[in-house]
Design goal:
- The complex is a heterodimer of chains A (190) and B (160).
- Chain A is mainly alpha-helical and 190 residues long.
- Chain A has two domains: 104 residues, Rna Polymerase Sigma Factor, Chain: A; 75 residues, Winged helix-like DNA-binding domain superfamily/Winged helix DNA-binding domain (Arc Repressor Mutant, subunit A), CATH 1.10.10.10.
- The radius of gyration of chain A is 21 Å and the shape is globular.
- With 160 residues, chain B is an all-alpha fold.
- In chain B, helix 1 runs parallel beside helix 3.
- The chains are: A mainly alpha (190), B mainly alpha (160).
- Chains A and B meet through helix 1, helix 2, helix 3, helix 5 and helix 6 of A and helix 3 and helix 4 of B.
Chain lengths: 190, 160
């Protein structure tokens, strides 16, 4: 059974709309999403090592980005905010998984997509295995630097690190990955 | 102190990301990379990461932007409604507690048998306390049983 809308209902709905509204309008959001979603998904998939989790975290990251209602100076600043949210979500998800299943951590399932190129598939699997041996922060750092082309300042901002400490950390992560890929000896394991 | 930077790093990275490495790069850069641990690491991992990025992006199945926007709107409205409803619930709880307190006070003030029970407890309290102290071991054991049995049952059944 329906009843007529009262002024109270209308005011309440307007108040909810005002509170639920985002600073970013739909067109701007959709254009931003179309530019960044695949990149963020790839980042999440690589950092978490889990496609399914990356799917979930992607939507959550964009929702939190919208809810943050932050004003951004430019596209780069906006992207950094999004990646920072995604990084925090991945970190929280990892903490939750450590609590839930502390003895079942080797779960890199992101290379499960069938590939027609056998050589590329083998290389992909080798790369995934090498990445899975790195710490999540090392994976994030390398991915941002070499897949996203982020500057040191941007990486530090996204990962919540001091820019000064990033260079040596990136150097060590790069060295470890190169050694794991079998293209350089892991001789400088300081 | 060992260097962690090289002036040719950016050039090596660009060559790797543009798929020019190693065939289509300057011979000078190639010979530098061969002898530079920093640039050789960059060349080794940059192309691998780039390939992986292309592969992941190509196979990524992300939801439509319109759908994500719509779901975000729905969720934001729901959360706003929950937030708006929360102070009302809190006020209702406080009002209910006040009403119960008021009713209890009225009952206590008007009921004669209740007042007589309270007086009897007050007059017998010292002797009851003495009795409890006298049999403190028994009282303690009973309290432990009353606490431990439900806890044990909860722990056993709670595992399911």
């Amino acid at each position: 059974m329906f009843r007529d809308l009262t002024f109270t209902d209308v005011h309440r709905a307007e108040a909810l709309d005002a509170r639920a509204g985002f600073v970013m309008d739909e067109d701007t959001f959709r254009a931003f999403y179309d530019r960044t979603a695949r990149g963020v998904w790839a980042y999440l998939a690589r950092v978490t090592g889990d496609r399914q989790l990356a799917d979930d975290l992607l939507q959550e990251a964009f929702y939190r980005f919208l809810r943050a209602d932050a004003e951004h100076d430019n596209e780069s600043h906006r992207r950094n905010s999004l990646y920072r949210i995604a990084t925090n979500l991945a970190r929280d998800a990892r903490r939750r998984s450590l609590i839930r299943a502390p003895f079942n951590l080797s779960c890199s399932n992101i290379e499960l997509v069938p590939s027609t190129d056998r050589h590329a598939a083998a290389a992909g699997t080798e790369f995934a295995q090498a990445m899975s041996h790195l710490k999540p922060r090392e994976r994030a750092m390398l991915w941002l630097a070499y897949a996203e082309g982020a500057s040191h300042r941007e990486i530090a901002e996204v990962l919540g690190l001091r820019p000064g400490s990033l260079k040596p950390m990136l150097f060590r992560a790069r060295k470890r990955l190169a050694a794991l890929l079998g293209r350089a000896p892991e001789k400088d394991k300081e | 102190m060992k260097s962690i930077e090289c002036e040719f790093e950016a050039e090596t990275l660009a060559a790797a990301l543009q798929s020019r490495w190693p065939e289509r790069v300057d011979a000078l850069l190639r010979s530098h990379v061969a002898g530079c641990p920093i640039c050789s690491d960059v060349a080794a991992i940059a192309s691998a990461i780039d390939d992986s990025r292309d592969d992941l992006r190509a196979h990524a199945v992300v939801p439509d932007s319109g759908r994500v926007w719509w779901l975000a709107q729905l969720r934001a409205r729901r959360e706003a409604a929950e937030t708006a409803g929360r102070p009302i619930s809190a006020a209702q709880v406080v009002a209910f507690a006040c009403a119960v307190g008021l009713l209890g006070a009225c009952f206590g003030a008007t009921s004669t048998w209740f007042q007589s029970v309270v007086r009897w407890i007050a007059s017998n309290l010292p002797s009851a306390t003495a009795l409890l102290v006298q049999h403190s071991a028994l009282v303690l054991a009973m309290a432990l049983v009353l606490f431990l049995v439900p806890t044990a049952v909860y722990l056993v059944l709670g595992k399911d």
